[in-house]
Design a protein that fits this description.
disordered N terminus
Length: about 675
């Protein structure tokens, strides 16, 4: 192992830190969109950093691995990686790294229901933030509010959320503002303050639609809007929001959100009277929650199953499920979960004739709810206690609790409840109604007299959007290429040669057409390489070559997030066209068929054009020398099958004419590109 000094490897491996840093940068860019890919990149960076003794890079890579695992719902793996990162940052004396990692540890522990650990991590993180780190302070306050909420300290939770919200508004951070408004809405649902809850959830939703694009937060808002409608008795309305959130979770492969949405689908189904489907959803949610170690979800799923069993008169099964839920709630110190499960357990104990146990359970619920000012649970506890005392023929106490029950119910659901519910529903649904009205108008047009016209309009709008995307990235590609190719024709030729090779290999015509365009974007990442390196006439130093290699990751990042097949193919090519068949390429060291076929094709086309073209720093090679070079590197640098296909294309008698024809027919940069 190299000698380590201040977290850096010795001079014998100076290019390793930059390589590790680039991998970490790429991993960070993948978080939230492809957490699995982020974990893969960070794992590679961790291995290289440990091999080279690069302590700073290793700590950063472990931190990114932890975030990736957390994003995928792998809480235990996330904790292990983050704890390793914390040890690394502490050894380095990196306070910033320690603060970020403690925050991530607190967030992960909170998701796992480990409230004391979460609070400890977050309080430690708060001590490392200062006035100049307002964003970090606000995020930690938000997480601490979650701990307080779960612990039943609602006033403290709301205070922390309000302080965090004010900080993010001062910073002009709409994404975090949307998140905070959502959390405040959740807390207000718990307190029974439904009008305020919907006001804040609606504001969050509008921010997410207008200023912020965050599908995960939008999914969470949808879940909580569903919870609100569940609380006011609109189960069918709630079910629509839960199912929409479930689709979002599955499309993002977010197992934690999937577990939560599935659980709430079950709750809405139960309240709609569909016990069979509700039981199926609760069992599915229980499995998902256990798979991601989401103990609050496990608690709620067990409580829901207990309610299903109770509705069927299966009292012993119900009591077992509720008792297990109470145990989990106490283990993770989830007051709200304990209140629900313990109340349900008391009601079931009464049905089993164990009135003494029922009174103990329900009196405990009443005490906890009063201490937490949880008004809804207070009056529900009074109702349940009234029933138990009535069964015990203690009519005086039964009357006392019955009166308290009605007082509490009237306080929350007064004569204005119907009016408030209608107003609140309308305020949130206005955007959905506009969307539905427009969709219905288009559907009527298609169904009655203008089906073909409407479909053509949809195709035209989709086509225009794709054209705009392609034109933007094509301009970037040409801008990058102009810096070391005065004619700017290299990108065109690589695209045409790639398409000819793909056709020779027998790829579908649609893929060939896409590749003709996507291959032109292979070097778009050069836009991020300094001129001093890109235009250097001589040989690169090792440090310069490492910097030059970064154009693959930069290009992939520029093209990432596209929804069309074209942009996804272009991203794949940008990242993989410098990988080698023998695994010695970059940036990820993929080998053989592990390299996408598009990247293998463009690798041959790119080298062929580079060698046959004249540049300011080199002459063009003779055709036969180029073909010999390709043959020599088949099986090491290049896929042998792709080389053979390329040689058949390059040795065609009409190849020069075909290339002249293709180049002459190429549209200008501002022209309209045809999408197959």
């Amino acid at each position: 192992m190299p000698r380590v000094l201040d977290g850096m490897p010795d001079a014998g491996d100076r290019d390793l830190p930059e390589r590790v840093d680039l991998l970490n940068e790429a991993a960070a860019a993948s978080l939230g969109t492809d957490d699995g890919h982020a974990v893969e990149l960070a794992l590679t960076a961790t291995r290289l950093a440990h091999e080279g003794g690069y302590a700073q890079g290793a700590a950063r890579a472990s931190y990114l691995q932890g975030l990736g695992h957390a994003g995928r719902g792998d809480g235990e793996q996330a904790l292990a990686c983050l704890q390793a990162a914390l040890v690394g940052f502490e050894h380095l004396g990196d306070l910033g790294g320690q603060g970020e990692t403690l925050e991530a540890l607190g967030r992960t522990a909170l998701q796992l229901g480990e409230l004391p650990s979460a609070e400890g991590y977050l309080e430690a993180a708060l001590t490392l933030t200062g006035r100049e780190q307002a964003a970090s302070t606000a995020r930690v306050l938000n997480l601490l509010a979650g701990v307080s909420h779960r612990s039943g300290a609602y006033a403290r939770s709301l205070d922390r959320l309000q302080k965090a919200l004010e900080l993010h508004r001062q910073l002009g951070n709409p994404a975090e503002e949307a998140n905070l408004l959502c959390n405040i809405g959740v807390l207000q649902i718990s307190l029974g303050a439904y009008p305020d809850a919907l006001t804040n959830l609606t504001r969050s939703y509008h921010l997410l639609n207008s200023s912020v694009q965050n599908e995960r937060t939008k999914g969470i808002v949808l879940i909580n809007l569903g919870l609100l409608y569940t609380e006011i008795g609109e189960s069918q309305h709630a079910l629509a929001y839960f199912r929409e959130a479930l689709q979002t979770a599955r499309s993002r492969e977010d197992r934690l959100m999937e577990a939560t949405a599935t659980l709430n689908v079950g709750i809405a189904q139960e309240r709609s009277g569909d016990d069979g489907q509700a039981e199926h959803s609760f069992r599915e949610a229980l499995g998902l929650s256990r798979a991601v170690q989401y103990r609050p979800g496990e608690l709620s799923a067990l409580d829901g199953l207990g309610n299903i069993f109770a509705g069927r008169g299966q009292w012993r099964e119900a009591a077992a499920a509720h008792a297990e839920a109470v145990t989990i709630a106490r283990e993770i110190e989830d007051l709200e979960g304990e209140l629900d499960a313990l109340r349900h357990l008391g009601e079931v104990q009464a049905e089993l004739g164990d009135l003494g146990a029922a009174l103990v359970s329900l009196e405990r619920v009443l005490t906890l709810a009063q201490e937490a000012d949880h008004r809804k649970t207070v009056y529900e506890a009074h109702r349940a206690l009234a029933e138990v005392h009535k069964r015990a023929r203690d009519f005086e106490r039964a009357l006392h609790h019955h009166e308290r029950y009605h007082e509490g119910e009237r306080a929350l659901f007064n004569e204005e409840s119907d009016k408030k519910t209608g107003e609140l529903s309308a305020r949130f649904d206005v955007e959905r109604a506009r969307h539905d009205a427009e969709m219905q108008r288009l559907q009527r047009a298609m169904a009655e007299t203008a089906r073909e016209e409407a479909e053509a309009l949809v195709r035209e709008r989709t086509h225009e959007l794709e054209q705009a995307q392609v034109e933007i990235v094509t301009r970037l590609a040409v801008a990058a290429e102009y810096r070391d190719d005065l004619t700017g024709e290299h990108t065109w030729r690589v695209g045409h040669v790639s398409a000819l090779i793909a056709r020779e290999l027998g790829l579908p015509q649609g893929d060939v057409a896409l590749l003709r365009i996507a291959a032109r974007l292979h070097d778009v990442g050069k836009i991020g390489i300094p001129d001093a390196i890109l235009l250097k006439p001589g040989k690169f130093t090792p440090e310069e070559f490492e910097r030059m290699k970064a154009h693959t990751l930069i290009g992939a990042r520029i093209l990432s997030g596209g929804h069309s097949r074209l942009l996804r193919m272009a991203e794949e090519i940008a990242e993989s066209h410098h990988e080698r068949w023998d695994g010695a390429g970059y940036p990820l060291g993929r080998a053989g068929v592990g390299i996408p076929v598009t990247g293998r094709i463009v690798a041959v086309a790119d080298v062929f054009d580079a060698l046959t073209s004249e540049r300011p720093y080199k002459r063009a090679w003779p055709r036969e020398d180029v073909l010999a070079e390709l043959r020599r590197n088949a099986g090491t640098q290049f896929d042998p099958e792709v080389v053979e296909a390329g040689l058949r294309v390059f040795t065609r008698v009409d190849f020069p004419h075909l290339m002249r024809e293709e180049t002459a027919s190429a549209p200008p940069v501002t022209g309209v590109l045809t999408h197959p």
